[in-house]
Design goal:
With 403 residues, the protein is of the alpha/beta class. The protein has 15 helices and twelve strands. It folds into three domains: 66 residues, no CATH class; 203 residues, Rossmann fold (3-Layer(aba) Sandwich); 53 residues, Winged helix-like DNA-binding domain superfamily/Winged helix DNA-binding domain (Arc Repressor Mutant, subunit A), CATH 1.10.10.
Length: 403
């Protein structure tokens, strides 16, 4: 299937209509035989429930497409050749995706996600894992966040990486990762966004992004995650999509490992080297994206994780759920505050302490992760040692003493 320009405009107007998410979009298109007919019928259907729904105008949709084109981006639709076949199998797959970059979306991929306040040990292992997975022929998918995500993207630049954004293509979050986005594009990777141009990401947009990350991938590897980490939501979506879930074990003394250790206890595949991922995914990839999914084996139970989809129920009686405005200019109360990113340490000492954990790490790696010189690291470590907060090990490694 290849949409005409007119059809693409209709698809964009329909999916940008308030309260129309991926599932409602498909129901409308299937019911009326196309997006144009659904747009004509939508005001009457919504009016029966006492709602007033007005789709974006053609000029608004054309403006979004033009703005995306100025960034060398374009919209791809489910069913088109460039749309990721694996993602298209997901129940709530976006009907349209804004794409910038090369056509690597249908290469075998694995998601690599984890803590934003990552430890130095977690960052170092992420780098090793991402490089190894890339060398094994897998594209690394992640969410462009600080910590594990950013390290996964950087380590897999030479072999191919896909970044999935929570906001619009022109709203990189965090803004400090603009250079990373340019590097991904320059090295032949891809950047995807579901939300409109101009959309500032909100807290609830990150779980939506996460189901795209897992949907693009044959499996999801969680490196570090606290018990209520957003990375566990990615794992939950992977389970719902019948994809593999992997977890890297960590010290039971480190809160950043509580979520991953729980995943392993509940049945996720333990990962301590690249081969542990490749051995599991190899046979699945050989069957191809269109093969019938294998029956779920021992899988973690993440049913308590909340659902993040509110869509209008056009056939429902009584009150329906609250709509989610998807057109930035139609926001009535200004930009919501994004709650996904934790505050960043303000000084060198705080950054170094945040990167330490119960697992021993080398001072060189600590300096690289903190973005400071070796002399600064040694000075901070001396202060921490005098305060009884670190323990020194062989080969110049140190660890944080649990209190």
């Amino acid at each position: 299937m290849q949409l005409t320009d007119a059809q693409r405009l209709d698809w964009l107007r329909l999916i940008r209509t308030e309260g129309v998410g991926p599932r409602t979009f498909r129901r409308l298109v299937n019911r009326f035989g196309g997006a144009a007919a659904a747009l004509d019928a939508l005001p009457d259907l919504a009016g029966r429930q006492g709602r007033r729904i007005t789709p974006p105008t053609r000029s608004e949709a054309e403006a979004e497409i033009a703005a995306l084109a100025r960034l060398d981006g374009r919209l791809i639709a489910t069913g088109e050749a460039d749309y990721p076949r694996l993602l298209a199998q997901v129940d709530a797959a976006p009907p349209l995706l804004a794409l910038r970059g090369a056509g690597i979306l249908n290469r075998p991929a694995v998601a690599l996600v984890g803590s934003r306040n990552a430890s130095t040990a977690g960052l170092a292992f992420t780098e090793r894992l991402a490089r190894g997975l890339g060398e094994a022929g897998l594209t690394v998918v992640s969410g462009l966040a600080r910590g594990i995500d950013a390290r996964a993207h950087r380590a897999s630049l030479p072999t191919g990486t896909i970044a999935v954004m929570a906001g619009g293509q022109d709203r990189i979050y965090p803004a400090s990762h603009a250079a990373l986005v340019e590097a991904i594009l320059r090295e032949g990777g891809a950047v995807l966004a579901e939300m409109p141009m101009g959309w500032e990401p909100r807290g609830r947009d990150f779980p939506r992004r996460n189901r795209i990350i897992s949907g693009l991938s044959y499996g999801t590897v969680v490196v570090e995650a606290a018990r209520r980490s957003g990375s566990l939501i990615t794992a939950r979506y992977a389970l719902e999509q019948n994809r593999e879930v992997f977890a890297v074990p960590g010290s039971p003394l480190d809160p950043r490992a509580e979520g991953t250790n729980d995943l392993i206890r509940q049945g996720a595949t333990l990962v301590s080297e690249v081969a542990h991922v490749v051995e599991v995914l190899g046979p699945i990839i050989e069957r191809g994206p269109d093969a019938e999914a294998a029956p779920a084996r021992g899988r973690p139970d993440l049913a308590e994780q909340p659902d993040f989809w509110d869509e209008i129920e056009l056939d429902a009686t009584g009150a329906d759920c609250d709509p989610i405005p998807l057109w930035p200019d139609r926001e009535t109360a200004g930009r919501p505050v994004c709650e996904d990113e934790p505050p960043q340490p303000a000084d060198d000492r705080a950054r170094i302490v945040a990167l330490l954990g119960p697992s021993p790490v080398g001072t060189d790696e600590l300096a690289r992760s903190a973005g400071v010189g070796a002399r600064t690291v040694q000075s901070v470590l001396l202060e921490l040692e005098l305060d009884g907060r670190i323990e020194r090990h062989g080969s110049g490694t140190v660890s944080l003493v649990s209190r």
